[in-house]
Amino acid sequence: MKEIYLDYAATTRPLQEVAEAVAVSMINTYGNPSSLHKKGVEAETILKETSDKLSKMLGCLADEIIYTSGGTESNNMAILGLCAAYKRRAHKLITSSVEHPSVLETFKYLQTQGFEVCIIGVDKEGMLDLEALQKAIDKETLLVSIMHVNNEIGTVQDIERIGGLIKQKNKDTFFHVDAVQSFGKAPISVKKCNIDLLSISAHKFYGPRGVGVLYKNKDVRINPLIYGGGQQKGIRAGTENVPGIAGMLKACNYADQNMERLNAHYRTCKMYLSDSVLEHIPDTFINGPDKSKGAPHILNIGFRGIKSEVLLHALESKGIYVSSGSACSSNKKVKSTVLSAIGNKKEDLDNAIRFSFGMDTSLEELSYVADKLEEQVMLLRKYTLGGRHK
Amino acid sequence: MKEIYLDYAATTRPLQEVAEAVAVSMINTYGNPSSLHKKGVEAETILKETSDKLSKMLGCLADEIIYTSGGTESNNMAILGLCAAYKRRAHKLITSSVEHPSVLETFKYLQTQGFEVCIIGVDKEGMLDLEALQKAIDKETLLVSIMHVNNEIGTVQDIERIGGLIKQKNKDTFFHVDAVQSFGKAPISVKKCNIDLLSISAHKFYGPRGVGVLYKNKDVRINPLIYGGGQQKGIRAGTENVPGIAGMLKACNYADQNMERLNAHYRTCKMYLSDSVLEHIPDTFINGPDKSKGAPHILNIGFRGIKSEVLLHALESKGIYVSSGSACSSNKKVKSTVLSAIGNKKEDLDNAIRFSFGMDTSLEELSYVADKLEEQVMLLRKYTLGGRHK
Fold first, then answer.
1. B113 and B184 share a domain?
2. Is the residue at B389 inside a domain?
3. Do both B234 and B287 map to the same domain?
4. How far is B315 from chain A (nearest CA, A)?
5. The pTM is what?
6. CB contact, 8 Å: A7 with chain B?
7. Is B328 considered catalytic here?
8. Given an 8 Å threshold on Cβ–Cβ distance, is B330 in contact with A34?
9. Are the beta carbons of B31 and A23 separated by less than 8 Å?
10. For residue range B352-384, what is the model confidence (pLDDT) as tens digits?
11. Could you give the C-alpha distances from B109 to A111, A153, A223, B180, in angstroms and in order?
12. What is the Cβ-side half-sphere exposure of residue A165, based on CA atoms within 13 angstroms?
């Protein structure tokens, strides 16, 4: 059976050249970057090259790049590390209602530690309420953490405007951006956007799993999350994952060179599938920004009267792999906080499918997906609801 | 120039089959284990297979295996996580003076958080003072953390006896073992040794970097270090490094099947190099256990009158790669705490070279190393010390 993967926002299949770079580095540059001899220096060179590339893409210094085990660790490290370092300065934290669990859960934990957490709402399209944000920032505000692209519905926040607004209101408030779904797809300038901390995950842009990045402005202090041998200037202990980082370098180069072309391709995919579904299947609607807006690689559609999980498995039986909401919270049997946040009614919290597109997605595939969707949706509605939605 | 790598305790060159398994998994099982569809299930299967293998090697349940980014994270997660979970029960922590920085630094941090840290000394060979340990454990003792094999001098602690002793003195005291240098080289039964938490790093036994394991007894609670999407039963958030774990599985299989053979090989290497050096180069001595004892893959030799770093680079110029103490603390310009702990005099704190052996080490290589060592040591002593040590 044909297999159609439309879950690129959960994880991408790494580029062949990424897999090769990882395997080659495992065998050739196997030294420990902390070792003082040549093998250590060779391994360290890979870290330096990758930091150089990342710093060029983000508009920061190579020294401002910290390697982590992934986006979740980067988010935790940024938020927990900053709060530990500045806990005596201020105690108010601000975030949005549509953040990834690795931000929201971290803030929940900090709330139990005496921090005040203020959660700013979003509109129907998932856009942050900037007025509410402006009002919320005061002299007690230590940190604002806002994601760039939402992982479930693809809303793109105006991080440049948000960064400006934060610093205008309180220049001592730090700005963290979860760029896990945007890095490699949208250009980001940390200086222009006044970003102090920014999280990246390699496996979201055709790099390896188990590798992430935290950009940290050199003038910002964070306490370590993980203590030990003083690697990465004492901020993140543990032997660096050199082969994974070598793989990420390839993925960075690819993303940098193909960003426009790929985005145009994703946009075509999104428009095509969205039109096919909305025009041919009744009682369907887009969650989040209009099809022409938002991140080009994410399309979230609600199918009234059908449980996401049921439709997901019906599609799976046809070789189509999609997600109900985000993979990252699929382990938990909770309804999407993002769909609640954009104001979906109770009956529209549990019928959403996230389609996310990648470099290998073709319109031919999407045509098949649209057909199967129509077929399965009609079938499910007929049988599970006695034809109520026919 | 011939290259001779004798820094296997810092990191190993992964097996070819490990590198291949990682690359293959990157391309074939690229799904996110949290995804509900087939690609997610395929990825999850790799986690399950690896947990099964690890549980058999450790004598625990597959459910007691948690994947981390490496040994340092495992040590931090065990210690910080346990202390956070049980901080109301007891506040005294015990460790030894020869632990890895990822344990010692974590304990230093906990000291600033109100925990009492008691550090037990070791004898000349690095063996823990069991009497002092027994005396130190009281009803206030929450945790004892002792490493299995020392990374700098190769001392092997009797963890079965230590585990028994701890539980006999206080059955509610938890026992954490840093097994980073022993797993895959020595058989370990967590039940027999009364171990509640145990740390493993894949890249120390020919597995990939960026992958570690924490064994956690199912009845023991730890708070997460990293918050997020509820992966790994909510204990360690973040998308699992499936390809890395697939590589570790290969390394586990290899270690399990070749343990005895490899240990005998390491022992032969250790005896050979130690005899060659001690017999032919004056003013040299073993740091740690006698050559016939201790871990077979680690040999630490002091060269009187020569700074470790100078000898390290002299050997490097001959294509020989060794370590001065441990790679993990080489970034810091501090003298070895391990050598202080075993009672070395001030002049013998900074002249140690750690030779660590691997599957590819040959006696022919070691013969060359012994020759070069003699040549370089004589040369350095002649020039840097005006012949004082001739």
1. yes
2. no
3. no
4. 9
5. 0.95
6. yes
7. yes
8. yes
9. no
10. 999 999 999 999 999 999 999 999 999 999 886
11. 21, 40, 11, 21
12. 17
